[in-house]
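Researcher: Sequence recovery benchmark, item below. Answer with residues only.
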């Protein structure tokens, strides 16, 4: 412990050679840890997405054709949105690749999109869609 205390109490130039090396290695290790933390944070926020998401909650009307071509319509809840798509919660699943029409009730935004994932969670489904023309 005295070794480390001596390192932090003296100016770098007054440290012995082994203490200077240890100090440089500690600083380099701190830089590597900091860069790794920044990289993980950015990677975790962005992942595979091309656009940043923001929370956009509220009712959403969705219509599509099911696998046999019958028209379907359901009101669900929008969870978040980005420039490229949105994620919503519905009671019914929608097949990946299915084109959907949507209308966000509160913001009056409407458009078309394609289902990119449909994840079950108990009695509901989390559905991610990519806006038509965003590729």
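Model:
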């Amino acid at each position: 412990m005295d070794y480390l205390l001596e390192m932090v109490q003296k100016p770098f130039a007054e440290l012995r050679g082994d203490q200077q090396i240890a100090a440089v290695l500690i600083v380099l290790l701190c830089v590597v840890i900091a860069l790794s933390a920044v990289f993980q944070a950015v990677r975790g926020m962005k992942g595979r997405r091309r656009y940043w998401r923001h929370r956009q909650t509220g009712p959403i009307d969705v219509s599509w054709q099911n696998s046999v071509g019958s028209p379907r319509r359901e009101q669900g809840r929008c969870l978040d949105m980005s420039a490229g798509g949105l994620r919503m919660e519905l009671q019914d699943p929608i097949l990946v690749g299915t084109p959907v029409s949507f209308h966000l009730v509160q913001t009056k935004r409407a458009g078309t999109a394609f289902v990119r994932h449909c994840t079950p969670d108990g009695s509901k489904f989390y559905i991610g869609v990519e806006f038509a023309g965003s590729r």
